[in-house]
Design a protein that fits this description.
twelve-stranded antiparallel sheet; disordered C terminus; 11 helices; single chain
């Protein structure tokens, strides 16, 4: 019987205020209502709190503060007269953090261990008809010292509450092994009581408890092919339904293997989080998580940092993911005492820690998806972990044991680190890493550690815009057998959307003094479960199929077990992003770990073909691309047929190497001046009667310079009009709104400090010279911050060709390498120009990388094509606003109004494009999305390059190859206006 639903609720400031007679039916309390499962702090009772490492109370274990919010929960329920009360059990799947239970006025018991089940025998207390259940929950308890897991502190009954009639089957432990050499399966089911009958109908088996049976041929369970066999365990009066998966986990030759093959984890760390419900997550949200994981090529999940809702593991069994199941233990806050008092090394805490480990193992031991038990997270070293590991291996020798933070690894089957720099990861792969201090005086322990396989427990901190460098990590992880993969931190942003709010909140939004700020906003999903650009990048990087070529095309099967028979391969040929031909590839059977070579489906050196009105033709120029995609051949439980698993693009010969152009709209030139015959000349504007404007050519001393479709201020050389479009700029821009990864972690590894010290956030522009030539305009400027000697010479050379061409030369000068009082500035945020255009240019069409945002070290998911978007849809809605929305490798871009009139920009070389309705400074000031108010213009950045992203919010910065170093740069942009007629030109200011 489920007891979920509406409960009566009352919050007290602490235990002393809470009434001692709350269990009485007639207690005098003014009850509110609360949904269970749920958290009272998300329903207007008190407030949630987020910390990363710090306990939100004084560290004095095992004591708790007097100010200990206490929630009384009360539930009335009715039992039919014939309901079997004898031996009934009351089960709580999760209560945070400590609770006491009364049933019909009698105390039943207390429990701790927030993310673990608790059961109470209540048969003697139940009665036919009306029953009263009362639960008192304390937010803080001694157990809180074991639950400092970088997440919101969310008290309450947040998982299911169930009343169970007498369980006649006390325990079931399935042992289902697979022999990869013979294909045989061996099954034994330990059951209490021994009178039970076990049935596996599909295999025609009927077993007795503890009987071992070998089946000559079974289909094994793997995350790639999650084959399950329905099983029933029955006694008179009760049947337990199970789903068995045959697989064998072993440590073989220094590697974790399943069914005889080393595993490779393409994983993620997953907290349980819902933007409105906190950790009271629904089964529908769990399935959504796992479907998204499968769709994005993930094959493993670490249940950071506690056992998940049990239904989540059912879904992992069904859909197929490898699981590291982590115990509900983290004592990270003891870093503030130099680990003095850490429970991990205090034998008095051993029973509580072992109780948590035992409850996790006993609850989850029958899930084939669980292949590794994790003892804890970030709890330093301690003898108690030896106790946990010893019990776990004795109880379940068929799984591996993991713990990262004890750097001796004496209790772990793995060597593991977090946020490892690439050069260190390479050394680990070759077993040439430095000896850790914990084993340098113990040769035997060091020899054992160096022989262990390596798991990257956390890496690529997905906070804000990023993570950068995923492809660099993947190349190293795949290169060395010792490296068995890793787990990105983390799955979902922990932003909370409180009732009536429009912004997601994070640490500090409630005025609390101790908090972790936005460090919880660090997921591959946004809080509403929308995938971020980081997840698209990760999907591309970890593709289980790699396609190289183009002639021959090689299909690499990177799977561990399954062939590629579930996929079909399709190709298309595009010219300038438009498809001209397509087809299906005939791919032979490719077993796991194998490759197949195919001939290219297109001629490698052929004239460029185009389609005109659907008819193929030959064109003299254009970029020619071959795109090959691997898609599902049939529907799967997690995606429909046609879902894309992998892809690759190849540039083909046959077209010009330069930027290509679509068919050109009619160009608008106010006044009828043809640009190819126009010359630079000085004009002035004067107001005439009626409020209109008159443009008068002058021999000198006027206000405007006209060059083709461009008009410039005479005094500054600044472009103010492009044909009929009023613009402002372009001017050199070196700054961007800092990303979380730019800022680093507490300043560590961040670049923003150096950028600000170099004055890059306060640059001033000085015009030194404006020269007008026959067909060119030369503007020389110096860009520099106040108070410093560093600067940049920026020269703008405007020339007239078929359109208006701008070449920008950038030359740094001064002490960018630092002085006695200023630090070295080793990178610039960006090199490019910014400009302002009218707000009605709100449709963007481009040929280049897309469809999503991309940066120097997060560009693997960007494929070359033609794309269209609104300006608003170009934005990436990070919870904390920051640099976002860049489209990379843009050949040309057009911004148009509703009538199709607008401006066009081409790049030589390619450029990065951002377009938004607010300035960089607006973006930098904003702390939440609602802080961004659209202005009356669109603000463009046209960049030669931007600095890489890295993952320095918790990890390494951008690598040198993705660092934009201060130096001389040159880039060219070509501007033009197009439309149907001058009367329809956008942004015209004529009255």
């Amino acid at each position: 019987m489920s007891l979920n639903g509406r409960w009566e609720f009352k919050l007290w400031s602490g235990p002393a205020e809470a009434p001692a007679d709350v269990m009485r039916r007639d207690v005098d309390v003014d009850w509110d209502e609360l949904e269970v499962p749920g958290h009272w702090v998300l329903r207007g009772h008190d407030r949630p709190r987020y910390t990363n490492t710090a306990f939100p109370f004084p560290i004095d274990p095992p004591r708790t503060p007097d100010a200990n919010p206490t929630g009384d929960h009360r539930r009335w329920f009715d039992l039919p007269d014939d309901w079997p009360r004898d031996g009934a059990v009351l089960r709580f799947e999760g209560v945070d953090s400590c609770f006491k239970v009364w049933l019909n006025g009698t105390e039943v018991g207390t429990a701790k261990g927030s993310r673990l089940p608790s059961e109470f025998d209540v048969g003697d207390l139940l009665q036919p008809g009306r029953n009263l259940l009362v639960v008192r929950v304390h937010q803080w308890s001694s157990g809180s010292y074991l639950e400092d897991q970088d997440m919101w502190w969310l008290p309450g009954i947040f998982r299911d509450v169930t009343l169970l009639s007498r369980p006649l089957i006390g325990d079931v432990f399935v042992h289902a092994d697979y022999d990869h050499l013979t294909g045989a399966g061996t099954v034994r089911v330990d059951v209490e009581p021994s009178s039970a009958q076990i049935t596996i109908p599909e295999l025609g088996l009927e077993l007795r408890p503890a009987e071992t049976v070998t089946i000559p041929r079974v289909e094994p369970w793997t995350a790639e092919v999650p084959r399950l066999y329905d099983t029933q365990v029955a006694v008179d009066g009760e049947t337990v339904e199970l789903r068995i998966g045959f697989r064998t986990v072993a440590m073989t030759d220094g590697l974790l293997t399943v069914n005889g093959h080393p595993l490779f984890f393409r994983g993620v760390n997953r907290h349980e989080h819902d933007e409105r419900r906190g950790r009271a997550i629904t089964v529908e949200a769990m399935r959504q998580d796992l479907v998204l994981m499968k769709q994005h090529n993930l094959n493993a999940v670490r249940t950071a940092h506690y056992p998940p809702h049990p239904a989540f593991l059912d879904l992992c069994d069904e859909l197929g993911l490898w699981v590291i199941d982590e115990c509900d233990i983290e004592t990270h806050g003891f870093i503030y005492t130099d680990w003095r008092g850490n429970p991990a090394d205090d034998p008095d805490w051993a029973p509580m820690m072992l109780d948590r480990m035992r409850r996790m193992v006993e609850r989850d031991k029958n899930h084939p998806s669980v292949v590794v038990w994790s003892l804890a997270n970030e709890s330093h070293r301690g003898r108690n972990f030896g106790t946990l590991a010893e019990w776990t291996r004795e109880r379940d020798p068929g799984r591996a044991v993991f713990y990262e933070r004890d750097r001796s690894y004496e209790f772990s089957d793995f060597y593991s680190l977090m946020y490892t720099p690439l050069e260190d990861l390479e050394a680990i792969g070759t077993r040439t890493e430095d000896v850790p201090p914990e084993t340098e005086d113990d040769p035997e322990l060091e020899t054992r550690r160096r022989g262990l396989p390596f798991l990257l427990a956390e890496y690529a901190h997905a906070m804000g815009n990023g993570p950068g460098g995923l492809a660099d990590y993947q190349r190293i992880l795949e290169r060395y057998p010792r490296l068995q993969g890793g787990f990105v931190w983390e799955w979902i942003d922990h932003g909370l959307l409180l009732p009536g709010a429009t912004d997601h909140v994070y640490g500090g939004d409630f005025g609390e003094r101790v908090h972790g700020a936005n460090f919880c906003i660090d997921g591959l999903l946004f809080p509403d479960r929308t995938p971020s650009p980081g997840l698209a990048e990760y999907k591309k990087v970890i593709e289980p199929v790699r396609i190289t070529g183009p002639d021959p095309l090689t299909i690499h099967n990177l799977r561990t077990f399954a062939s590629l028979d579930d996929l079909e391969f399709v190709w298309s040929e595009e010219v300038d992003g438009e498809e001209v031909d397509a087809g299906r590839l005939e791919v032979p059977e490719v077993q796991a770990g194998s490759t197949a070579d195919l001939r290219s489906p297109v001629e490698m050196h052929a004239p460029v073909r185009r389609r005109v009105d659907g008819v193929p033709g030959v064109a003299p120029d254009g970029e020619r691309w071959l795109t090959v995609r691997a898609v599902l051949a049939k529907d799967e439980a997690w995606a429909a047929a046609g879902h894309e698993v992998a892809w690759a693009q190849f540039r083909l010969d046959g077209g010009s190497a330069g930027a290509s152009s679509p068919a050109q709209p009619e160009r608008v030139v106010p006044g009828g001046v043809q640009p190819e015959r126009a010359v630079a000349r000085v004009v002035q504007e004067q107001v005439v009667p009626g409020g209109g404007r008159e443009r008068i050519v002058s021999g000198g001393g006027g206000e405007r310079i006209v060059l083709g479709v461009g008009e410039f201020e005479r005094s500054t050389g600044r472009l103010v009009r492009l044909g009929g479009i009023e613009v402002d700029g372009p001017e050199l821009d070196l700054w961007r709104a800092p990303t979380d990864n730019d800022c680093g972690q507490g300043g560590r590894n961040g670049v923003v400090g150096d950028w600000r010290a170099a004055g890059l956030d306060r640059l001033l522009h000085r015009v030194d010279r404006v020269d007008v030539g026959e067909r060119e305009l030369l503007v020389q400027t110096r860009v520099a911050p106040d108070g410093l000697g560093v600067g940049v010479r920026a020269t703008y050379r405007w020339t007239l060709h078929d359109a208006l061409r701008l070449t920008v030369d950038v030359e740094p000068e001064g002490e960018w390498s630092g002085t006695a009082v200023t630090p070295r500035c080793g990178s610039w945020p960006r090199v490019g120009v910014r400009m302002v255009v009218p707000s009605n240019l709100d449709t963007v069409r481009w040929f280049g990388g897309g469809p999503g945002e991309a940066y120097a070290d997060s560009r693997e998911a960007a494929r070359v094509g033609r794309y269209t978007s609104t300006v608003d849809d170009l934005q990436t809605p990070y919870v904390v606003p920051q640099e976002n929305g860049s489209r990379i490798d843009v050949r040309w871009a057009e911004l148009t109004d509703a009538q199709g009139n607008g401006l066009r920009v081409e790049g030589a070389p390619h450029f990065q494009l951002t377009a938004r309705r607010w300035t960089t400074e607006d973006l930098e000031r904003a702390r939440h999305r609602s802080d961004l108010t659209p202005r009356d213009h669109v603000y463009l950045n046209l960049d030669l390059a931007q600095n890489g992203l890295g993952s320095a919010s918790c990890g390494p910065p951008a690598t040198p190859q993705h660092t934009l170093e201060p130096g001389p740069y040159t880039f060219t942009l070509t501007f033009d206006q197009f439309g149907r007629s001058p009367e329809h030109a956008v942004g015209r200011s004529d009255a």
